[in-house]
Design brief:
Blueprint (H helix, E strand, L loop, with lengths): L11 H12 L16 H16 L3 E4 L5 E5 L9 E5 L13 H17 L2 E2 L3 E5 L13 H6 L5 H5 L9 H7 L15 E7 L4 H5 L3 E7 L1 E10 L3 E2 L11 H18 L5 E10 L5 E2 L2 E10 L2 H21 L3 E10 L2 E2 L2 H14 L3 E6 L4 H5 L5 E6 L15 H19 L1 E2 L1
Parallel strand pairs: 3-5, 3-6, 6-16, 7-15
Antiparallel strand pairs: 1-2, 2-5, 4-17, 7-14, 7-16, 8-12, 8-13, 9-11, 10-12
The protein binds (2S)-amino(hydroxy)ethanoic acid (HGY) and manganese (II) ion (MN) (2 copies).
The site of one manganese (II) ion (MN) has 4 residues, from loops.
Length: about 425
Amino acid sequence: MPAPSDNMKINSDRLWDSLMDMARIGPGVAGGNNRQTLTDADGEGRHLFQKWCKAAGLTMGLDSMGNMFARREGTDPDALPVYVGSHLDTQPTGGKYDGVLGVLGGLEIIRTLNDLGVKTRHPIVVTNWTNEEGTRFAPPMLASGVFAGVHEQDWAYQRQDHDGKSFGDELARIGWKGDEAVGARKMHAMFELHIEQGPILEAEGKDIGVVTHGQGLSWTQVTVSGKESHTGSTPMPMRRNAGLGMARMLELVDKIAWEHAPDAVGAAGHIDVYPNSRNVIPGRVVFTVDFRSPDLKVIEAMETSFKAGATAIAKDMDLGIEMEKVGGFDPVTFDEGCVSAVRNAAERLGYSHRNIISGAGHDACWINRVAPTAMVMCPCVDGLSHNEAEDISREWAAAGTNVLMHAVVETAMIVE
Ligand code: HGY
Ligand code: MN
Ligand code: MN
C-alpha cells in the first residue's frame, strides 16, 4: 500500500479557525478556557464538535462514559478502525490547545481526506475522551481508563466533585451518557496529537516530538486534622495548626522531588483549607500530592519517603493524618510500530524532530494498554500549559497535524 505523498497537507487556516471557534466556548478570564468536564460549557463544546463531524460526513458513536467516536468509513468494513483523538475538557485556568488540538487535528485530517477524495482501507475514528484532566473528578484520564479496563464504570460514576456532585449524575444531566458499552470497541491503532506542555521542543528548535514513552504519575490525597481556634487569643503552645503541618509537608514534597532529580517532579496543586477564615487557625486541610517520574521505582520511593515523613510531622505536631491514593499510572512505553509511523511521517515531511518522554499524562497512556498507540507532540510557547496564557504558533499546529495525518493514513492504508 502506498505511503501518503509528501505534498498531502492539511488546511492550516481551517484548523486554526476551528481551534479559535472552540476556544469561544467556556472562556476563561485571561484569554484561555475554563471548560471543565461535564459542565454546560463542556456540553456546548461537544455539540459544536458533533455538528462539525456531521458536516464532514462522519457517524457519531457515544459510549456510557460519554466518550465520542466520529467514524469515517473505510473500503473494508471489517477492518478495525484507526483512532485519532484527545480531549475537549480543560483545566479551570486552561489553555486553548491542551487536548483540543488533538481532537480538532483529528477532524482536520478527515476534512482534508474528504477534500482530496482519499480513501483508506481501515475506517478512521476521531475521538473525544471524557474527563482527561481529572480536575473536577479525580483521577485524570478517567473515561479512557474505564475504556481500557483500568477503572470500573460504577466506581467512575461515583467520583464526586468539590460540591459533592457525581460523575454519573453530571454526565446524564448534560445529556451525553451514551448507550454503547464502554470498552467494547476494538482498535487497529490509536494516535494522539498533543502540545508538549514543557520547554524542550521549543528550546531545541524542534517542530515535532516523537513520543516514545510517558512518565508515570502518583496522586495521594492527604487530610491533616488539628483544631480550629482563635488566631488571636490562643497561646502558641496550645495550637494544633493543620495549616502549618501542611506547609511542612509541602516542603517535604519539594525536597523529595529534588532528591530524585533530574527526572522526578513533585508538587501539590489541589489545596483546601477549613474553615479558611482569616482569624481561625485551620482545623483541617486536604491536599493532593502529585509525584511523577519516568521510572516506577522512583515514584514508589518518593511515595514511601513522603508517607514516612508526613506521618512523623503529624506525630510531632499532635495532628491527625489520613492518606489515600486517588490516582496513578505506571510509566508507558508506546508501540514501536506506531512510533515509527510518527517518525517516518516527520522525516517524509521534512520536519525537525526528536524522541521525547511525555511529562504529562494523556488518554493515549491508557489506550496503549488495549491497542498499539503512539503520540505526536508539537512545541508550546515557553513550555507553558495549564495556564490561560498557553500558546502555540499556527506553524506548530500545522506541522503536528500533518505528521498526525501521515501516521494515521499510513496506518489506515490508502486505497488507490
Ligand atoms: O495531569 C496530567 O498530566 C494531564 O494534564 N491530565
Ligand atoms: Mn491534555
Ligand atoms: Mn491538561
